[in-house]
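Bumping with the actual sequence this time:
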Amino acid sequence: DAGTDAGACAYLDLDLWISDCGSGHAYVRRWTDTGSAGCPDYYTVGSARYATLADALSMNGCDPDCLRAAAMSVTLLRCGVRTGYITYRDPEMDCDELLETPDGLYGSVAEWNTAHPCP
């Protein structure tokens, strides 16, 4: 349970990655306490909590070599509306980059446009 010590610790999700997992793309987060040494870091995939990154990845069938982190934010006009996306990239380029859009995760702007064409 991700909230087990929520009353005693002030956690912040310091790192956010997107990995390729058995169920598709999944968000992997590292949580760290902002002030107490007695509150250990932990990782989550969904609402499940894990003591180590390796456990979080293996228990969810995630590729340990594919951890995309936010690399760039883009703002644009699409269909006459201001919107944008965040590009997530694996630093070692072990997997393709992903775009996090308001409509979901896509491999490219073209893929996003195909899935959600302008009216």
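The tokens above came from a reply further down the thread. The chain has two domains: 11-59, 68-115.
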